[in-house]
Amino acid sequence: MQADWDARAKENARYYVQTAQENWSDNDFFASGEQTVREEILTDMINICQGRVPKEMRVLEIGCGAGRVTRALANLFGEVHAVDVSGEMIRMAEAALATHPNAHVYQNNGMDLSVLPESRNGSFDFAFSTIVFQHIPSREVIETYVREVGRLLRPGALFKFQVQGDASLATAPDDTWLGVPFSDEQAVEMAERCGFEPRHRIGAGEQYFWLWFFKR
Ligand SMILES: C[S@@+](CC[C@H](N)C(=O)[O-])C[C@H]1O[C@@H](n2cnc3c(N)ncnc32)[C@H](O)[C@@H]1O
């Protein structure tokens, strides 16, 4: 996964992060991250903040890419910590976030969140991931991430993320573009195994299958 995403980052990072455009300007690229936050976060503040003040919240993002959404999250929340398997993507995210001292990015191993040590357990108020797990070809890796997010979130907090829900799309174990699909039943079972309540699910059977997992 690291080699494939480093290669994509070197070829055209912003295109592979968000395929809506091949030649993103800075303005349009970061505006698209703000749009994601408007659509997926600002419409959902009751589930996400649960009465907390955003500027007092610590947020985790998985698969930050070139910092498109991370920057918008850092404009809204007090502290953002974001991981990505690709060192090339992380280098670009660091540049994008140079003006945001409340954002911290880490290259991780593509499998777990050990880059955030046990001293961080239970210290995050919200976790988010968009257009990342839909690229991961292994159900085991995705489940490990869910379990790890559970380690880092405080009880009751939300992990809002997206998996690939369309079982008709062909996948191969080494395909890092088209990830492994989850049925609604498989998503619910994963939540239960990892200590989450799968309270809301939208898009089962579709490419963008959104999940709202609340830590028990
Ligand atoms: C399509 S991009 C989306 C980036 C970002 N979420 C956004 O919306 O702008 C997918 C990102 O996920 C990262 N990624 C893919 N597999 C990963 C894994 N197993 N662990 C962590 N990051 C991964 C890639 O390096 C890439 O930066």
Description:
The structure is a single chain. The protein has 216 residues and is α/β, with parallel strands linked by helices. It has one domain: Vaccinia Virus protein VP39 (Rossmann fold, 3-Layer(aba) Sandwich). 37% of the residues lie in helices and 22% in strands. The chain has seven helices and seven strands. It has a seven-stranded mixed β-sheet, sandwiched between helices. Helix 2 (26-40) packs across helix 4 (68-76). It starts with a helix and ends with a strand. The model has no long low-confidence stretch (mean pLDDT 97). Residues 1, 5, 17-18, 63-65, 68-69, 84-86, 89, 108, 110, 130-132, 135-136, 141 line the site of S-adenosylmethionine.
How many structural domains are formed by the residues? Answer: 1
Number of strands: 7
H/E element sequence: HHHEHEHEEHEHEE
CATH architecture: 3-Layer(aba) Sandwich
What is the percentage of strand-forming residues? 15-25%
The number of helical elements comes to 7
CATH superfamily: Vaccinia Virus protein VP39
